[in-house]
């Protein structure tokens, strides 16, 4: 993707849209070197939290404008429905990472 593009996705479960799904969006603010995050942040955030939450519409569709270059993660937590395993709640999450690049 190019910086300034719009990313659009659809949250589904068993092939059906998940209406009003909550999607956590996160900007990866640290480069990765080897197997660890680099200490220095890429940007100075306006707030400690770099995670925002958006909602899908009744058809499971969500949209976000990509404002800066880097990796953006979209996580529809608990989108897999209400499941249990050995009597405990089981969360099935849908996660996708996309990379945006600046045009030169």
The overall pLDDT, averaged over residues, is 89
Strand arrangement, major sheet: 7-4-9-12
**How do the helices and strands follow one another from N- to C-terminus?**
EEEEEEEEEEEE
* Estimated helix fraction: under 10%
Number of DSSP E strands: 12
Number of domain modules: 1
Spatial extent as radius of gyration: 16 Å
Task: Explain what this protein looks like in three dimensions.
- The protein has 104 residues and is mainly β.
- The protein has one domain (6-96).
- 0% of the residues lie in helices and 47% in strands.
- It has strands at 6-10, 12-13, 16-17, 22-27, 32-33, 36-37, 51-55, 61-65, 70-76, 83-85, 88-90, 94-100.
- The strands form five sheets. Strands 7-4-9-12 form a four-stranded antiparallel β-sheet, with no helix packed on it.
- A hairpin with a 2-residue loop joins strand 2 and strand 3.
- It starts with 5 loop residues before the first strand and ends with a strand.
Question: Top keywords for this entry?
Answer:
4-stranded antiparallel sheet; two-stranded antiparallel sheet; 104 residues; mainly beta; 12 strands; single chain
Describe the SSE topology.
Blueprint: E1 6-10, E2 12-13, E3 16-17, E4 22-27, E5 32-33, E6 36-37, E7 51-55, E8 61-65, E9 70-76, E10 83-85, E11 88-90, E12 94-100
Antiparallel strand pairs: 1-8, 2-3, 4-7, 4-9, 5-6, 9-12, 10-11
């Amino acid at each position: 993707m190019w910086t300034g593009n719009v990313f659009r996705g659809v949250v589904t479960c068993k092939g059906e849209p998940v209406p009003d799904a909550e999607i956590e969006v996160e900007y990866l603010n640290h480069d990765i070197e080897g197997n660890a995050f680099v200490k220095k942040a890429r940007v100075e955030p306006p707030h400690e939290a770099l995670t925002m939450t958006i909602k899908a519409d009744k058809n499971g569709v969500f949209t976000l404008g990509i404002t800066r270059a880097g990796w953006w993660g979209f996580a529809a937590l608990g989108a897999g429905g209400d499941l249990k395993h050995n009597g405990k709640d089981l969360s099935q999450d849908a996660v996708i990472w996309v990379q945006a690049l600046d045009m030169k």
